[in-house]
C-alpha cells in the first residue's frame, strides 16, 4: 500500500513564501522512516531536519515541493481565503500525483487548518475536480462531486500523528528555512519573518522603502509601536496597519 502526507511551512509569516510538501511512501519506506525516528519538524533541531530531509527524499517514491510567493498569496487572497489557497495547492499536488504515478496513494494524510476538518477535505476535492475537469469560472462548487478513489484524511496536528505528514513537514520546513537564509544574505537579519517577532517588525518599519515587494506579504497586518509624545513617560502604543510597498 502507498500512503502520502502533506504539510506546509510558513503559513503565517509576513516575509517569504509559504512552502508546501507532499511525500509518498510504500510500506518499506514507512519502516525506514520509523527507523530514522522521523518526527514533526517542530520537534527536532535544524541540523537534524537537514539530515532527515536528504534521507526522506531518498526513501520517498515521489515528493513534491511547492513554493507560493508573497505576491501570489496577496493576489489570490483578493478572491479566496488562505485556507482555500492551501486546498487549491494540495489539489494541484493530487493532479500531479495522478499524472506521474502508476499507482495513486491509497490514503493521503493532510495537516488541516480548518476547525471543521472534514470541510478542508471537501475544499481539496472541489478544487481537484475543478482542475482535472477544466470547469469554467461558473463551476458550481457547492454541488460538485466529492468522490475520488484516494482516501483523504485531514486532521489538526496531523504532523504529529502520521509519520508521512511528519516527513512532509520536514521537507517544507527545510525548504522554507533555506529561502529565508538566502533572503537574509541579501537584506540582513530580519528575525523569523513572523509579524509577532519584534525584530521582524523593526526591520519592516526601518526598511519600508528598500524591501522589494516580491518578498513581503502586503496583505498581512503588522503591529508597529508608536511613541506617544504627549505622555512624559513616552508610553508606547501599538498601531496595527497593513504594509504599504
From TrEMBL:
Localization annotation: Cytoplasm
Record's catalysed reaction(s): Endonucleolytic cleavage to 5'-phosphomonoester
CDD domains according to UniProt: RNase_HII_archaea_like
GO function terms (MF aspect): manganese ion binding; RNA binding; RNA-DNA hybrid ribonuclease activity
InterPro entries in alphabetical order: RNase_H2_suA, RNase_HII/HIII, RNase_HII/HIII_dom, RNase_HII_arc, RNase_HII_hlx-loop-hlx_cap_dom, RNaseH-like_sf, RNaseH_sf
Alphabetical UniProt keywords: Cytoplasm, Endonuclease, Hydrolase, Metal-binding, Nuclease
Cofactor field: Mn(2+); Mg(2+)
Short name of any one Pfam family annotated for the protein: RNase_HII
Segments forming domain RNase H type-2: 1-236
BP terms from Gene Ontology: DNA replication, removal of RNA primer; mismatch repair
Keyword flag Protein biosynthesis: no
Major localisation: cytoplasm
The enzyme's E.C. designation: 3.1.26.4
Cellular component aspect of the GO annotation: cytoplasm; ribonuclease H2 complex
PROSITE patterns with a match to the protein in the record: RNASE_H_2 (PS51975)
HAMAP family hit by this protein: RNase_HII_A
PANTHER family: RIBONUCLEASE, RIBONUCLEASE H2 SUBUNIT A
Role, per record: Endonuclease that specifically degrades the RNA of RNA-DNA hybrids.
Family under the similarity heading: Belongs to the RNase HII family.
Name this protein carries in UniProt: Ribonuclease HII
Record organism: groundwater metagenome
Amino acid at each position: 500500500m502507498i500512503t502520502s502526507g502533506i504539510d506546509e511551512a510558513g503559513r503565517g509569516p509576513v516575509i517569504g513564501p509559504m512552502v508546501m510538501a507532499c511525500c509518498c511512501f510504500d510500506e518499506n519506506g514507512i519502516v525506514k522512516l520509523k527507523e530514522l525516528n522521523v518526527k514533526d519538524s517542530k520537534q527536532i533541531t535544524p541540523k537534524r531536519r537537514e539530515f532527515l530531509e536528504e534521507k526522506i527524499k531518498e526513501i520517498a517514491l515521489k515528493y513534491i515541493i511547492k513554493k507560493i510567493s508573497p505576491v501570489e498569496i496577496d493576489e489570490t487572497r483578493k478572491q479566496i481565503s488562505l485556507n482555500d489557497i492551501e486546498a487549491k495547492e494540495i489539489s494541484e499536488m493530487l493532479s500531479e500525483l495522478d499524472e506521474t504515478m502508476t499507482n495513486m496513494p491509497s490514503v493521503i494524510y493532510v495537516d488541516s487548518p480548518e476547525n471543521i476538518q472534514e470541510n478542508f477535505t471537501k475544499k481539496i476535492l472541489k478544487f481537484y475536480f475543478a482542475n482535472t475537469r477544466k470547469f469554467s469560472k461558473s463551476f458550481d462548487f457547492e454541488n460538485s462531486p466529492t468522490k475520488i478513489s484516494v482516501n483523504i484524511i485531514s486532521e489538526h496536528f496531523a504532523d504529529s500523528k502520521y509519520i508521512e505528514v511528519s516527513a512532509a513537514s520536514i521537507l517544507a520546513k527545510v525548504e522554507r528555512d533555506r529561502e529565508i537564509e538566502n533572503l537574509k544574505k541579501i537584506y540582513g537579519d530580519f528575525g523569523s519573518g513572523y509579524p509577532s517577532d519584534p525584530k521582524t517588525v523593526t526591520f519592516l518599519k526601518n526598511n519600508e522603502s528598500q524591501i522589494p515587494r516580491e518578498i513581503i506579504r502586503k496583505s498581512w497586518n503588522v503591529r508597529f509601536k508608536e511613541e506617544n509624545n504627549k505622555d512624559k513617560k513616552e508610553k508606547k502604543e501599538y498601531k496595527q496597519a497593513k504594509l504599504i510597498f
